[in-house]
Design a protein that fits this description.
The protein has 164 residues and is an alpha+beta fold. The protein is built from three helices and ten strands, in the order ββββαβββαβαββ. The longest helix has 16 residues. The chain starts with 11 loop residues before the first strand and ends with a strand.
Length: 164
């Protein structure tokens, strides 16, 4: 089921960061944060294969996965997107930041853009996220973005939901 169709992959521009499609030239810089089905890439080839699957998921209307880019220098600093639930008018929001950019506000800004896109462009009725109970930085990020804890999940994970 295709829920959204765009002639061009949607780019979202903010004052400090932008969300854009991940390019083939980005992949070598994203190996440490390249995942698909909770499996981490260990080589450029694996990361490229994962990105190909992610691109197909987008074309199928199942997810949207952006690179987060610093507008000042055009460096890719992380990724975020919606990975499940779009067929129900909902979205599980996820994100990963390259370690050298921790604590600099990039993810707060990138996720804010993604939330706005989810609510106002995709028309999502519910946005949620899951993280490990020990992932303090992710929990603080979600709380900063107006998410509240809604459930304890299996495997020591917790679920948060955006409060509009």
């Amino acid at each position: 089921m295709k829920l959204f169709q765009y002639d061009n992959f949607p780019q979202v521009t903010g004052s400090r960061v932008s969300l854009r499609q991940i390019l083939e030239t980005d992949i070598k810089d994203l190996i440490e944060i390249s995942f698909y089905d909770a499996i981490r890439a260990e080589t450029v080839q694996q990361a490229a294969e994962m990105q190909s699957k992610i691109n197909q998921d987008y074309l199928d209307g199942n997810s949207i996965h952006w690179g987060i880019v610093d507008n000042a220098n055009h460096n890719i600093v992380g990724t975020c997107g919606y990975y499940r639930g779009l067929d129900k008018g909902e979205g599980e929001l996820g994100c990963v930041l390259l370690s050298q950019y921790y604590g600099q506000g990039y993810m707060t800004e990138g996720m804010s853009l993604a939330i706005d896109f989810g609510l106002h462009t995709l028309g999502l009725k519910r946005i949620w996220a899951a993280t490990g109970q020990q992932n303090g930085p992710a929990i603080k990020l979600l709380e900063r973005l107006n998410f509240v804890k809604t459930a304890d999940l299996n495997d020591d994970e917790i679920e948060y939901e955006l409060q509009k």
